[in-house]
Amino acid sequence: MKERYESFPPCPPPVVTGPFMDQFIPLTSLEQMSSTEYDVLVVGTGGGGGAAIWRLCQQLKGTGKKIGVVEAGPIMLQTHSYNLPTVAQNFSNYYYNPKITKPIGLTMPDLRDSRQAIALGGKTLFWDMVTPRMPPSQIAETPVPYNEMQTYYNIAEQIMKVNKPDAYDSPLSRILLNRFWENGVPEAEITPRAINFEPVNYGGVNPTVYFSSISFLAGGLEARPFDLAVQARAVQLLGDHGRIAGVKVMTPDKKPYILRAKNIILSAGIFETVRLLLYSGVQGRALGHYLIGHSYMIFSTVINRRDLPATLGPLYLLIPQTADRPYQMQIYRRQNEMLEQKGELGIGFSGYGKVESRYENRLYLHPHLKDEYGVPLLQADFSFSEKDRAIMARMAQDIHQYAAAIGGRVAPPDPCLHTLDHVAGVCRMGIDPANSGTDPYGQIHGVPGLYVADASVLPPYGAVNPTLTIAALAIRTADHIAGQM
Question: N or C: less crowded end of the chain, CB within 10 Å?
Answer without folding.
Answer: N
